[in-house]
């Protein structure tokens, strides 16, 4: 149960950890007990890693630092959690997409599979103070770097905002 406190990153982190765990489960060959342990280890690693890099008032600040990435190199947080359940980096590369980017930001968790894939939002909650419109133009760091390398404009980047 979330307290709704701005500094609480547990919802975002558990969403991200659950997503990576689902990818592992879908690939098969990893037991439920191992998956549960992996998810807990990953959440712990993320909480520790993001502790001083979580800025709810400026959600894009530190985004590159919180970006989880598999790109022919294994993300150290995923690698660490996998090591706890005895999965080697080689095995992880077989189980997980070879190109995966996961952005864990205050109020939003999104991911992209493949370098040119669409960005999909896993979790989104309105920012306190109603700065939702401002949020889109403040996307920098990790998200910017792949857009700059493109020659053609991307149609998949138009984010849908759903107000409930």
UniProtKB/TrEMBL annotation:
One cellular component term from this protein's GO annotations in UniProt: cytoplasm
Name of this protein: BTG1 protein
Gene field: Btg1
Pfam families xref list: BTG
PROSITE patterns, per the entry: BTG_2
Domain Anti-proliferative protein: 96-115
InterPro entries: Anti_prolifrtn, BTG, BTG-like_sf
Family: Belongs to the BTG family.
GO biological process: one example: negative regulation of cell population proliferation
């Amino acid at each position: 149960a979330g307290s709704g406190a701005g500094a609480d990153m547990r919802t975002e982190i558990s969403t991200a950890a659950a997503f990576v765990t689902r990818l592992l489960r879908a690939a098969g060959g990893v037991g439920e007990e191992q998956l549960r342990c992996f998810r807990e280890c990953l959440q712990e690693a993320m909480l520790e890693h993001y502790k001083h890099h979580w800025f709810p008032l400026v959600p894009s600040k530190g985004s590159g630092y919180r970006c989880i990435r598999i790109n022919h190199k294994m993300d150290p947080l995923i690698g660490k959690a996998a090591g706890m359940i005895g999965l080697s980096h080689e095995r992880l590369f077989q189980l997980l997409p070879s190109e995966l980017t996961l952005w864990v930001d205050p109020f939003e968790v999104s991911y992209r599979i493949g370098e040119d894939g669409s960005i999909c939002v896993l979790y989104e909650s309105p920012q306190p103070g109603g700065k939702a419109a401002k949020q889109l133009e403040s996307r920098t760091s990790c998200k910017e770097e792949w857009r700059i390398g493109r020659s053609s404009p991307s149609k998949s980047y138009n984010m849908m905002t759903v107000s409930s």
